[in-house]
Amino acid sequence: MTRLIVISNRVSIPEPGKPEAGGLAVAITGALNEYGGLWFGWDGNVSESPNSRPSTVERDNITYATLPLTQEEYDDYYLGFSNEVIWPVFHFNLGAMDFRLSYAKAYRRVNERFASALSTLLEGGELIWVHDYHLLPLGKELRKKGIKDPMGFYLHIPFPSYDLLRALPGYRDLLGDLLHYDLLGFQTKNDLHAFRQAVIETFDAVVSGDTIECNGKQVRTGVYPVGIDVDGLAAEAERSCDNEQALQLKEDLGERDLIIGADRLDYSKGLVQRFNAFEALLTNFEHRRQQTMFMQIASPSRSEIPEYDELRRQLEEMAGHINGTYADLDWVPVHYLNQTYPRDALIGLFRSARVGLVTPLRDGMNLVCKEFVAAQDPDDPGVLVLSELAGAANELSGALLVNPYDVDAIAIAIEQALNMPQQERRERYQQMIGILRRNSLLEWRRRFIAHLSQQKTHTEG
Ligand code: GDG
Q: What would the pLDDT profile of 403-423 be if each residue is shown by its tens digit?
């Protein structure tokens, strides 16, 4: 069987005794286990004299090959170009973009360095699967090293419209880089459409069916919505009912309804608007006071970037303001936890909640909403309130879909969710769980790898 090579910005090496990694890492490990292969990327460390040869670790039939970044690479490639330029532009937030030439140069240098290090580990006759926005130019750099194997790229985040993309200095190069892959995968039809539009406008590319032809190159494209392991998660959620934390939470809640949100602390997740929406619920639907508790878990993320630190402060203030205004001796309306919660406890919270509040301003897919649905009791499920600007909204029509900027509409949707009869909740749950089973995580990786396997070895020098 052909060896699979996966490249992602961060590599997650399973360590005995450490909690299991998140769903996506599990999917990638699953694919690598099936095919046998190599997972290559950054080890998460910063070192002043990084070895140019990657360190390797073997686990089962997977080789993990990792490199550290220098401080400058971490600042300029990772925080700078990846997260202060590409991330905001691709999430339609031009105001948060901080472009600097030094960032753009470091981004290219790290991609070159990764390509050099990786090329020494390749044997030929392999399938190469590159993940995400940190590594857009990696395919081109590997081709420069003479690598001819089929290469696919998967974008986990949205692809911006052409007009927004044009605000990113050097966007032509980045678009051109992507055309060196044989297969390009996107989360939704919209993202694929935006990409096609951008290459048509920029390079006069010709689109026929799934294929884009441009400058003598042919690139296959497709939509592969990321999913979750539904049955695994549902079983975990059922087990969580008996754990100590879950029983304690039940006791604390009493007759109150729990509204749950859980996100990385990121401006794309719409947390400010969400807090305002909860306040609007308490203001516009007074009978909800004393009766509801909103718990927001915001796991720390990219805190060296000023926007993220500012957001953390703003949310702390907002939680304080809502609690200061509405709390009573025996009731605190907002529980805001700026920490990464253990996975099993998080799933237990999803199971106990009456409402899952997932309102990103923009999201490639969003796995939290899928996990919330899969964690529900099929006989008495909670209701998902979901942003129509999350990729997942294309699949989850059983959710109450909201505009994440419309604070009053979110409050009305929460009220509707809390009043929803059991029969309707069950019907909505059944609609969503069926789709989640069809578009599972396993299906996602199998389809992508099947399509990549159909690509011929690259003949370009
Ligand atoms: C990117 C794209 C796309 C959250 N808080 C805690 C915690 N989580 C877990 C969730 C979920 C994961 O983190 C977050 O995944 P999302 O998909 O919601 O968001 P991003 O991190 O932005 O992911 C996104 C995804 O890639 C996959 O393609 O869907 O659009 O932006 O699994 O459960 N996990 C634990 N504690 C927490 O406090 N243990």
A: 999 999 999 999 999 999 999
Q: Say what the pLDDT of residue 24 is.
A: 74
- Residue 305 CA, chain-centre distance (Å), reads 19
pLDDT in tens, 361-401: 999 999 999 999 999 999 999 999 999 999 999 999 999 99
Q: 368 CB less than 6 Å from ligand 1?
A: yes
CB 11 within 8 A of CB 43: yes
3-state secondary structure of 128: strand
Q: How far is the CA of 410 from the centre of ligand 1 (A)?
A: 22
The answer to whether the CB of 149 is under 6 A from ligand 1 is no
Comparing 41-45, 52-56, 286-290, the range with the smallest average pLDDT is 52-56
Residue 63 in contact with ligand 1 by CB distance below 6 A: no
Residue 461 has pLDDT above 50, yes or no: no
Which atom belonging to ligand 1 lies closest to the Cα atom of 368?
18
Residue 454 buriedness (CB in 10 A; 0-12 / 13-18 / 19+): exposed
Kindly tell me the burial class for residue 124, based on how many C-beta atoms sit within 10 Å of its own C-beta (0-12, 13-18, 19 or more): exposed
Q: How far is the CA of 375 from the centre of ligand 1 (A)?
A: 15
- Residues 5/40, Cβ–Cβ less than 8 Å: yes
Concatenated DSSP letters of 265-316? S-GGG-HHHHHHHHHHHHHH-GGGTTTEEEEEEEE---TTSHHHHHHHHHHH
Tens-digit pLDDT profile for residues 62-109: 999 999 999 999 999 999 999 999 999 999 999 999 999 999 999 999
Three-state DSSP state, 420: coil
Query: What is the atom index within ligand 1 of the atom nearest the CA of 297?
Result: 38
Rounded to the nearest angstrom, the distance between the alpha carbon of 368 and the centre of ligand 1 is: 6
- Closest-CA residue to 151 (of 135, 174, 170, 128): 128
Residue whose C-alpha is closest to residue 139's, from 108, 168, 102, 177: 177
* Ligand 1 and 132: CB distance under 6 A: no
Q: Is the CB of 182 under 6 A from ligand 1?
A: no
Strand 183-186 relative to strand 217-223: parallel, antiparallel, unpaired?
A: parallel
Choosing from 339, 366, 373 the residue with most ligand 1 atoms within 8 A of its CB, the one to mutate for a pocket test is 366
Q: Report, as residue numbers or ranges, the catalytic residues.
A: 156, 363
Binding site membership of 404 for ligand 1 (Cβ less than 6 Å): no
- Is residue 147 within 8 Å of 122, Cβ to Cβ? yes
Residue 375 and residue 234 in contact, taking contact as beta carbons nearer than 8 Å: yes
**Which tokens hold the place of 289?**
């006071």
Q: Cα separation of 199 and 201, whole Å?
A: 5
Q: What is the value of pTM for the model shown? A: 0.96
